[in-house]
Amino acid sequence: MQCVHRSYDHAEAEIVAGLLREEGCAAFVFENGLSRLKWYQVIAFGGPLVMVPDACVTHARDVHDHWRRGDYCLDCDDRCPRCDGSDIEENPSYRGWAFFFGCFLGLPIWPALKWRERCKSCGHHWKAVPPDTYAELARQTAEARTRGHHG
Questions:
Q1: What does pTM read for this prediction?
Q2: CA-to-CA distance for 9 and 12, rounded, in angstroms?
Q3: How far is CA 43 from CA 28, 63, 115, 139, in A?
Q4: What integer best gives the mean pLDDT of the chain?
Q5: Confidence category of residue 87, pLDDT binned at 50, 70, 90
Q6: What is the DSSP string of the chain?
Q7: If you average pLDDT over residues 35-62, what whole number do you get?
Q8: At 140, which helix (H) or strand (E)?
Q9: Taxonomically, which superkingdom (predicted)?
Q10: Which residues contact 119 (CB under 8 A, 6 or more apart)?
Q11: Distance, CA of 139 to CA of 118 (rounded, Å)
Q12: CA nearest 75: which of 6, 16, 7, 143?
């Protein structure tokens, strides 16, 4: 087994593993039970890992590269406000500090950094505005499907 993706975000690791499974690779998220119960310990160990068997590594890395480039993005997915790039991630750089201040000093800092995103192409940081409700998110998904995208 080899690691093809490491993330501080459990949901992202599950999405990558699901994509790899859909593309024919057996993919597993390691530490997924712990990340649901004690997320701060998973951060201390480097985050959830997406592992694939040795026979699938080349194909899995190819699929992962396509995912990183944005080949699986929908038209309604987030884009960078500066460069219009699609290689967007939640900015995990504060999570190590959140772990330190939260566990050792008892000072929570993550509410101030909620919904922070970063463009991997140009490095621009911004605070994204999440959909107001699940109904709005469902409407956006339905609109994307009617335009011919399947998700």
A1: 0.54
A2: 5
A3: 18, 25, 18, 34
A4: 76
A5: confident
A6: -EEEEE-S-HHHHHHHHHHHHHTT---EEETHHHHHH-HHHHHHTT--EEEE-GGGHHHHHHHHHHHHHTTT--TTS---TTT----EEE-THHHHHHHHIIIII----GGGGTTEEEETTT--EEE----SSHHHHHHHHHHHHHTT---
A7: 82
A8: helix 134-146
A9: Bacteria
A10: 80, 82, 83, 85, 87, 88
A11: 25
A12: 143
Q: Distance between CA atoms of 42 and 19, rounded to whole angstroms? A: 22
Token pair recorded at residue 118: 């970063």
Inter-axis angle of helices 10-22 and 57-69, nearest 10: 120
Structure tokens at 121: 């192409």
Give the residue carrying structure tokens 């690791």: 13
Amino acid residing at 21: R
